[in-house]
Write a structure and sequence with these properties.
single chain; alpha+beta
């Protein structure tokens, strides 16, 4: 599962990179329009020009892939450090570079580049020789109305496929991958196409404060971002994908956290939860026995795990004390109860599991325990709660008779006697189990807080991985801005000649980058909220039963987009400001 997750994030970064590569090649070919047209004028055929562009992309992709493979070792080391900081605990083993990794990386690196350059190469082949004298007849673009129609169709079809794949899933996991994953990709492609049609008015709207505050540099920033809405939208699309995935993950994790903690507070009614939270290993059975002897505690029940095969499936059974457990947890008993467990041959079944196996109260359940011993238990009750990771509950006596020994405790639940304060009694409980330093005593509130922290750590890991895609997008913005500065060399020289200072020029370039970044972030947040809500709805209600939008995280994402724009503009702004004015004016 861990490896699959990393491969998904690798696919996301490759998908984002394809937007950057396509934008860069499209921009550079437009800047080389006269050069390519002259080649056509002196006899080069359209297929030769197309091959020129393809071979150039192939050489660039091979060089970049080689650098990327070795750079991946450094990224892998950084990821290990990141996960260790988040509590994953990777062992100190040397990095492994397998032949298949090199082969796959080469296929992906070269393949993504070649796919990204298909349209620019096709457009280059259609350049007429007359464009050498009249550049305005060079590239022909899809009309705004056609782009709007195509983008709308792709977006609607993609959104419909995503909804069907995630919510209905006709065909199970295959539908989830094909319809859900494919629909999500189609949504991104459609939104990217649509954003070109709305880039100019949206940039004008969000650029009003910039115009008002920074006057001429602000106006130039807005006009430059509006000048080529297709380039602006393609550049922003890469950031849009990263932001949308981060926003979707934030919505999903927040909804999961709130549902989990709310359900947990209803399920676990015990005052204390005792577990080995450091090594995650089972506690010795003597911990629960020691706690049973403490006069301040009124009820104690361990959670011991028993493995068994039921109906050709491997299951985990929770062994509990059926007398004390009802006072420590509320499983939401639907039918029957704990009497069968007290008698010794009963078993509790989660209602969905019972429905799948056709089990009812009084039905026998055949088991093959982990030690190959066979047994038969009787369904004594069904329950609805699924917040704890167990669908079957038996008594401690059943566990002992099945495997002839007490296994370690997953955790231990305990409740103080009536009239006692759990916070005041906690030191006495801790004192009683000092012989077991690995056993950590948490109050109910502390336990819920620790579980929330684990979900927050998961969100931090996901956000950290997705941030790699955002970093790639920021690099793309910087490259596109640098190409834009090169394209406007003469214009920049003229602006400097009529009195624009270096500071004003830097400000104009910086705010152009900020406007592009904010545009991509706004679109990304809207798409991300849609994805996050659908993902949350797709999960069963016993895991997520409500939608939580973390507005603080959303605002943070937008602020991060502004900082990303400023970071991306640093080198292009510096390059533009350091141009020699006379050389810039004389540039053809």
């Amino acid at each position: 599962a861990f490896g699959t997750g990393l491969r998904i994030f690798a696919f996301v970064t490759a998908f984002v990179s394809s937007f950057i590569i396509n934008t860069i090649f499209g921009t550079t070919l437009r800047q080389r329009l006269r050069e390519l047209a002259l080649l056509r004028a002196v006899g080069a055929s359209s297929s030769q020009v197309q091959r020129l562009v393809v071979v150039e992309a192939l050489v660039v992709s091979v060089v970049a892939t080689v650098i990327g493979i070795f750079g991946g070792l450094a990224v892998a080391r950084g990821l290990i450090g990141f996960f260790n900081a988040a509590g994953a605990g990777f062992p100190p083993t040397p990095l492994q570079m397998q032949l298949r990794t090199v082969v796959i990386a080469a296929i992906v690196g070269v393949g993504i580049t070649m796919l990204s350059v298909v349209i620019p190469a096709w457009r280059a082949a259609r350049i007429p020789p007359v464009a050498a004298m009249r550049p305005e007849v060079g590239f022909s673009a899809i009309s705004a109305s056609s782009r709007l129609a195509i983008g709308s169709l792709v977006t609607v079809v993609g959104a419909a496929a995503f909804l069907v794949g995630m919510l209905i899933r006709p065909g199970g996991s295959l539908a989830l991958i094909v319809l859900g994953g494919g629909g999500g990709l189609a949504v991104f492609l459609g939104i990217s196409s649509l954003s070109a049609t709305v880039a100019r008015p949206v940039i004008g709207f969000i650029g009003r404060p910039v115009r008002w505050r920074f006057k001429v540099p602000g106006s130039l920033a807005v006009q430059n971002a509006q000048r080529s809405p297709r380039r602006t939208s393609r550049t922003a699309s890469a950031l849009m994908i990263g932001v949308s995935l981060v926003a979707a993950a934030a919505v999903f994790a927040s909804s999961l956290r709130d549902t989990f903690t709310a359900t947990l507070s209803q399920t676990i009614t015990a005052d204390y939860i005792i577990a080995d939270n450091q090594s995650q290993l089972p506690l010795p059975a003597s911990v629960a026995e020691t706690l049973n002897d403490i006069p301040e505690l009124d009820a104690v029940s361990p959670f011991r795990i028993l493995f068994a095969e039921i109906a050709s499936g491997d299951e985990q059974l929770a062994a509990i004390d059926p007398v004390g457990f009802p006072d420590l947890a509320d499983l939401g008993i639907v039918d029957g109860g704990y009497d069968g467990l007290i008698d010794g041959d009963g078993i509790l079944v989660q209602e969905d599991q019972a429905a799948d196996l056709g089990l009812a109260i009084g039905d026998p359940v055949d088991l093959v325990y982990q030690n190959e011993r066979e047994g038969t238990l009787t369904v004594s009750g069904t329950f609805s709660d699924a917040s704890l990771p167990f669908q079957w509950y038996v008594s401690l006596d059943t566990l002992r008779s099945a495997i002839d020994q007490d296994s370690g405790d997953f955790f231990v639940l305990a409740r103080v006697a009536d009239g006692l304060d759990p916070n005041a009694t906690k030191p006495a409980v801790q004192e009683a189990i000092t012989d077991f330093p690995q056993a950590e005593v948490q109050t109910n509130a502390e336990f819920r807080s620790s579980q929330e922290d684990q979900i927050n750590q998961l969100l931090a890991v996901i956000t950290g991985l997705l941030s790699m895609a955002m970093i790639i997008a920021v690099i793309g913005i910087a490259i596109t801005l640098a190409l834009s500065v090169f394209e406007r060399t003469r214009e920049i020289g003229l602006l400097r000649a009529v009195g624009m200072t270096r500071r004003q020029l830097k400000r104009a370039i910086r705010w152009e980058a900020v406007l592009v970044s904010v545009f991509g972030a706004i679109v990304g947040v809207v798409v991300g909220l849609f994805l996050g809500v659908v993902l949350s709805i797709a999960v069963p209600n016993n895991i997520i039963d409500g939608i939580t939008v973390p507005w603080a995280n959303i605002v943070t994402i937008l602020l991060a987009a502004i900082l990303a724009g400023l970071a991306a503009a640093w080198w292009p702004a510096r390059k533009g400001a350091r141009m020699d004015v006379l050389e810039a004016i004389s540039t053809e």
